[in-house]
Write a structure and sequence with these properties.
Elements: E1 30-32, E2 40-46, E3 51-56, E4 59-65, E5 74-78, E6 108-112, H1 129-135, E7 138-151, E8 153-163, E9 169-182, E10 185-196, E11 201-203, E12 209-214, E13 227-230, E14 236-239, E15 249-252, E16 268-275, E17 278-285, E18 296-297, E19 304-308, H2 312-315, E20 324-326, E21 331-342, H3 348-359
Parallel strand pairs: 1-7
Antiparallel strand pairs: 2-3, 2-7, 3-4, 4-5, 6-12, 7-8, 8-9, 9-10, 10-21, 11-20, 12-19, 13-14, 15-16, 16-17, 17-21, 18-19
């Protein structure tokens, strides 16, 4: 795996936040050679906790959490190289001052709000059971196919199933995560292939999707104006911002900034700010082989950072509707890169180099 080199940072000692808090155990693993001389990226399979912990030189980076109680698989929490939380803690493990809106927005994930009429995006245990059992889909963990550790890179391959509220399988998912580390930069490449199993599967056009991060309140865009958001079912959520510690801003590959990035299309999106003295850039890169590249961005200043290739209707005020139907037995692949730069904000030229490297990989 080719990638850019930057200066090393000695990471402070931090502890994993477990999804379920049971004891851990070391799994048998393959070895990934990775860049010569890079930091050790080690994956540890904590079977009792139903998570795989990812460590960089022995320090926590993230955990792949696959308990069915989560209703989907997530990376949570995610740490910066400086040891700060990139992701919001609530509702799994609250931290002081956090917003408690949108309980389905946890860690880093991929799902969608209208799959054959079922909502996978907005599913959480905050939804009444009588609604969940007829409207909400769940992504079920099947197995971990492969775990590999190595210098500079670790890899995880997992199989999942997208299941309707009535228990009918709609999609088979295979996802490969590449965890890369060098200096003060961390990269996560997520490559997800979805296959329609028993019948054709329709992704109806909605803004509620698709590849997303719910991030730390320190990276929120400063604002004192309450905002009300409406989901696809008409449910309203009001978010009251607190700008006292908000330091964030967005910048797109097309030079759009701030809240104006919502509904625009771009090759990549940079969220930059400061977390308790640590300068941070968090970049999501779309891939040229993805559907309808460059993607639309469902990116909000209150903490949601999401790329959505299927949401044209909402993003264009009804001028364009996409939708997508995957025939039975056919597959579609989504490729996303997340770059987490610590101690410095990345320049557009630096991001373009990372994006160009990503574009040359992954069929």
């Amino acid at each position: 795996m080719r990638w850019l080199l930057i200066s090393m940072l000695f990471l402070p000692a931090v502890s994993f936040v477990s999804c379920n808090n049971p004891p851990s155990q070391q799994a048998d693993e393959e070895k990934n050679p990775g860049p010569q001389g890079g930091p050790k990226v080690e994956l540890v399979d904590n079977k009792e906790a139903q998570q795989v912990d990812v460590l960089v030189d022995g320090k926590p980076f993230t955990s792949y959490c696959y308990s069915d109680t989560l209703l989907k698989q997530i990376l949570y929490p995610i740490y910066t190289a400086g040891g700060h939380f990139l992701t919001r803690g609530w509702p799994l493990k609250s931290r002081p001052g956090e917003h408690t809106d949108h309980p389905h927005q946890r860690g880093m994930w991929l799902n969608y709000g209208d799959v054959n009429g079922y909502d996978f995006w907005g599913n959480s245990y905050a939804i009444p059971q009588d609604v969940r059992k007829v409207q909400k889909g769940t992504i079920k963990h099947v197995k971990i196919d492969r775990i590999a550790s190595g210098n500079g890179e670790g890899t995880l391959v997992a199989d999942e199933r997208w299941v309707s509220p009535y228990g009918h399988p709609l999609l088979a998912e295979q996802t490969t995560y590449h965890f890369l580390a060098d200096g003060t930069t961390r990269i996560i490449d997520r490559i997800t292939t979805l296959t329609a199993t028993d019948s054709a599967v329709a992704f109806k056009d909605t803004k509620e999707g698709m590849f997303a991060i719910r991030y730390n309140r320190h990276l929120h865009i400063p604002s004192n104006k309450p905002e009300t958001f409406v989901d696809a079912e008409g449910n309203k959520t009001t978010v009251t911002p607190d700008s006292r510690e908000a330091t964030g801003n967005y910048l797109s590959s097309e030079a759009v900034t701030g809240d104006s990035v919502w509904s625009t299309r771009a090759k990549w999106m940079d969220l930059y700010g400061n977390i308790e003295g640590e300068d941070i850039s968090v970049v999501i890169c779309d891939h040229p082989r993805n559907f309808d590249y460059p993607t639309y961005w469902h990116a909000r200043g209150y903490g949601l950072f999401s790329a959505n290739p299927f949401g044209a209707h909402d993003f264009t005020n009804g001028k364009l509707t996409i939708g997508y139907t995957l025939p039975k037995g056919q597959s579609i692949t989504f490729r996303y890169r997340v770059i987490i730069s610590s101690e410095t904000h990345l320049s557009p030229d630096q991001i373009n180099r990372y994006a160009a490297d990503f574009a040359e990989q992954y069929e």
